[in-house]
Design brief:
Two copies of one chain form a homodimer.
Chain A lengths: L5 H9 L7 H4 L5 H10 E6 L4 E3 L7 E7 L2 E6 L5 E7 L4 E2 L10 E4 L3 E7 H10 L1 H27 L2 H15 L12 E4 L4 H8 L3 H13 L4 E3 L3 E4 L2 H6 L12
Antiparallel strand pairs in A: 1-8, 2-7, 3-6, 3-8, 4-5, 4-7, 9-11, 10-11
Helix pairs in contact in A: 4-5, 6-8, 7-8
The structure holds a DNA duplex.
Chain lengths: 250, 250
DNA sequence: TTGACACATTGATGTAGATCAAGACCATGA
DNA sequence: TCATGGTCTTGATCTACATCAATGTGTCAA
């Protein structure tokens, strides 16, 4: 099987620095609009660990990830943290029509984002309806992903959570194309144990223990610190608790 | 304090049987479009406990809740269930551009929904862009709610989960208007213990125990089976673990 | 080469919430 | 009046994961 979302992949191959991926998606995009988008866009780089914006801070731009990984997190007063969004290349951040960020946005790895000042972007959305339609589609996808994530957080065991996360990243991470040979998947797991624990609603120790367990059972192989090999993707899928035909929502 | 979302309330007062709440929201709605909407809409009623659609089933309509409460749930192969959506009057269900339902949709109470066949609805969306814009706005709100919910599922204690759920319903349930006098809130908790446990990622026994605890401490008072009185809303908010100025996301 | 630091692993122990089990409460209907 | 079934409560016990603590590993810089 080793299914990979063709959609995500094709986007990131063709154009991943446009918030609505217009070159890949919108045949109807007119040259004028394209040019306007080009004019208002700019790039920002962050080092791994840096914060892009804090929850509550002013955020006068929308952006999409060009390279690297960004996370959205919520923090409680006493410091408990829960990741609520994971942005891979070509994913979109920022909410039109809101002044401040509702979440901490953090660079999980070195990160380049393609930004658009919010005002002109919103004006352009009004002028070109299909951009709004594309944004609606993307938001609905994110909502589905969030709901999948809720099932994980509310009902899965630690082991199932880890297996699920690895499968999710394997499916989404474009770099896996590099060696999707003979049923074996090799890719970077670009998150620290701590980031994984924030994603999964676990402690970092539990993440480490469950990773070790999967390793001992041969379901995953680790090479170096972050490189992961999945010898048999279907076997790992079995451990996620998901329906074996499990949709395509992420 | 006892803050109540003015937005939700005004919608449900003025027009809660329109999926995009156009009468309340869209000054720009033209008579023609209104008439068209009226023509393609129809009503469906369900008894408490009935299933509206199963996950994977064909769903050729979109709908909004008129009265009652509907839930969206996901089920794992072994029967573990997690609620991923709670629809109160005026909330929207169904995804334009998808053939089948991704979730079980269930009537938590007796329920009336206002439905629109999907095809004509989608066509109308294309003709009138601001309906799509409104839908985007609503979807973004839902995404925010889902992320709040993820924090609850991943990081809150059982006690905090219960307190949060009660506050969420108190804020959203329009019926609370009836007696929002002198800081005391009285309203129906329209969910069984089991439904609450599916919402919160707990067992029904834990829900029951924590409800009893809050009752013994005087944070809530129960009258009959489902009627709840919150003598001091702020005191209950303290127990949710949320920031005391905690945004307005639901 | 040696700290120093960030990150990961592993062990020992504690505990919140799950699980299993027994009743209580309350409506409905014979 | 008493059964019946659905919902809720409460108790006893178990366990998955958290917590606390020590140690290991790789990288960088002096």
């Amino acid at each position: 099987m080793t299914r990979v979302s063709p959609k995500t992949l094709s986007f990131s191959q063709e154009c991943n620095d446009c918030p609505i991926r217009h070159r890949a998606v919108c045949a109807r995009c007119e040259a004028d609009e394209l040019t306007q988008l080009e004019q208002i866009k700019y790039y920002r780089s962050f080092e791994a660990g840096q914060t892009v914006v804090w929850a509550g801070d002013k955020m006068d731009f929308v952006a999409s990830v060009v390279t690297g990984i960004a996370t959205l997190s919520q923090t409680m007063e006493d410091g408990r943290r829960q990741m609520v969004g994971l942005l891979l290349p070509s994913d979109f951040a920022g909410r039109p029509g809101r002044e401040t960020s509702a979440y901490d946005v953090t660079a999980a790895t070195d990160l380049v984002m393609c930004c658009f000042r919010k005002k002109p972007f919103e004006e352009m959305m009004l002028r070109t309806p299909h951009i709004g339609q594309r944004l609606l589609e993307m938001t609905l996808d994110e909502l589905d992903a969030a709901r999948e994530w809720m099932l994980l957080l509310g009902r899965k065991t630690a082991r199932e959570k880890i297996a699920s996360l690895i499968c999710i990243i394997a499916r989404r991470d474009a770099s896996l194309q590099l060696s999707a040979s003979d049923g074996e998947l090799r890719f970077d797991l670009p998150l620290t144990r701590e980031a994984m624990s924030e994603y999964l609603g676990l402690t970092l120790e539990t993440v480490s223990r469950q990773m070790s367990a999967l390793r001992k059972e041969g379901l995953i192989v680790t090479e170096g610190k972050r490189q992961i090999v999945i010898p048999d993707f279907d076997a790992l899928l079995e451990e996620t608790g998901d329906d074996s035909d499990g949709g395509f929502l992420i």
